[in-house]
Write a structure and sequence with these properties.
Order of helices and strands: H
Number of domains: 1
Strand content: under 5%
Largest sheet: none
Distance between the termini: 73 Å
Shape: rod-shaped
């Protein structure tokens, strides 16, 4: 039963790491989606008003 606390700590740290990583991935995903939308709008504007 001595190994149990180590396992619990490992699972806890892994869960925290995954939570942090998922937040990071969400941030990166939303940022890339925003960039894609901005590029699309820029393309649409350039198509509507060719310089």
């Amino acid at each position: 039963m001595r190994n149990k606390p180590i396992v619990v700590i490992a699972i806890d740290s892994l869960a925290r790491f995954l939570m942090r990583r998922s937040q990071y991935l969400l941030f990166v995903g939303s940022a890339s989606v925003t960039a894609l939308v901005a590029q699309r709008r820029k393309l649409a504007i350039e198509l509507k008003f060719p310089s």
